[in-house]
Amino acid sequence: MQELGGFVLLARMRSFVSLLSPGWSLAARYGLAIVSVAIALGIALLLGGYAFSLLLSAIAVAVWYGGAGPGLMAILLSMLSVDYFFRPLHPNQTAPPNTQYFVVFVLFAAVMSWLSASRRRADQMLRQARSELEAKVLQRTADLRETTAEAVAAQQRFRDLVNSVEGIVWEADAETFAFSFVSAQAERILGYPPEHWLREPKFWKDHLYPDDRDWAVQFCLHTTAQKQNHDFEYRMIAADGRVVWIRDLITVVVEKERATRLRGVMVDVTERKRAEDALRRSEAYLAEAQRLTHTGSWVYKAAGGGHYWSEENFRIWEFDPKQGAPDLEMVVQRIHAKDRDRVAEHWGTMVRARTDFEDEFRIGLSDGTVKHIHVIGHPVFSASGELIELVGTHVDITERKRAEQERERLRQVEADLAHVNRVSMMGELTASLAHEIRQPIAAAITSADACLRWLTRNPPDLERARLAVARIKEDGTRAADVISHLRPFYKKGSPPEREVVDINQVIQEMIVLLHNEMTRYSVSVRPELEEEIPKVMADRVQLQQVFMNLMLNAIEAMKDTGGGLTIKSQLNQDGQLLVSVTDTGVGLPDENADRIFDAFYTTKPQGSGMGLAITRSIVESHGGRLWASANDGSGTTFNFTLRTETGAHA
Predict the structure, then answer these.
(1) Percent of the chain with pLDDT over 90
(2) Parallel, antiparallel or unpaired: strands 523-529 and 563-571
(3) Do 263 and 306 reside in the same domain of the chain?
(4) What are phi and psi of 560, to 5 degrees?
(5) Same domain, yes or no: 572 and 598
(6) What's the whole-model pTM score?
């Protein structure tokens, strides 16, 4: 029992040492060897034997927990201790023959030491391997955790990236078009949450615009079957009923020679479509406006190439649009030979002066047709002063030129008619005019006879002769004035000459000129002329013709009964000069009163029907208006307005 207790004590020591041994210093390990042997010896002395077994255990503990060096020390100490037990207790006692046991002990201790050391090394290697394995597991775990975090972060970045795309990122089956992925932008663009897209196998087909459904599905099926990436535009119906234009950019995923999936991005192009529609409408309106106004636009680049001509410009110049915009040399060659050098020089001067240019010229077409062109150009320069391009318009003014020529022809015809009218009136006034001229001439002759008599007296009566000569001069001047007033009425071909005219003075002149005619038909005249009225800018001869026509019409209306002729001048409420010529004659005709101003319409047996038409034309050419009205009693009033000199400048 004592032996068993000793071994138990040694085992507990071993367990205790095993708890404390990790991380011991070198001194502690060698101390362990000494302590182990000492404990074994103490137990052996206490038990009175068993030193062999106890020392072997001590060696094992020292080797196991201390290592080879402490184990070797334990062997040496154990050998010395065994030697003690083999010695006799008394000097005269003979030692037993235990040498073989000592040798066996030493060998056994060496083997145990080797085995313990090997086991220790194996245990240390195992612990080291375990520690390394645990470290690697921890590192792997940390790496996996980091990789997982990075994967989660990458997935979140991918999700954020996909959702930040201004379009619906999607993936779908290549045959059924059933969606397997749809980005969150789907709800923003079309109003349907992604779950609806994923839950409904026919979502795409069912939400296509009805007019686009058949062709869009067929197009996608056909191009997918061809394994071709494609993009196209179609309309979809949003959740709120809006029609949304979509541009779909699709990639076909091919696996084992078979299209399996489709991936794409749907982009909302509704605003772009609206802008394109607006641009097309604007271009159509512009083209129509150019067609209606015969205006073509053009751009010429200074560097050459990239020239632009509008459709109407091709039509005006009769160049082929399929051949593109002609170069400047071709344009210049089409300009009329008589205008070519002048136009080229003018354009060059304007470009060098960096100013806009405007010109008119003719162009000759292949069939001999000549067109008149009005050009406006604008040079565009860079910040450094280099010419970038010329932009401008060509206006076909051929019709305008023809209209101007026709208007000039009509003006000449009207002038000729007016001249005929004046000559005709002079013919009607022949008797009165002859009297107006004959009277001062006869008076001058009488005065000349008297002057001769005064001069033939002895002595000559010079004073009376001087008075007679003065009367001759006065009568001659009066006759000359009548002739000078008549001369413009016979003059032909001179263009109208506007000048500042006193309307009251013209009225007085016409009263004097027609005095004998009015006396002939017992017509009295009463001028009611407002003083200090503004003057008018007008052609004097034409105004005289207006008054002569109106006054002769009034005299004609009263020639059978006589009557009164009233001429008024005043300012109306609009600041215009208002003139009225009123007679007490037969009045306006009951029928066709509104036709009295029509050309060639007359109620007179010998009338030409041009007097009032010409009169109205003259008044309107001066910015006025002529009209007639019946009087309350008898007769007619002709009124016309003229812009005063002040109003003309306003």
Answers:
(1) 32
(2) parallel
(3) no
(4) -85, -30
(5) yes
(6) 0.44
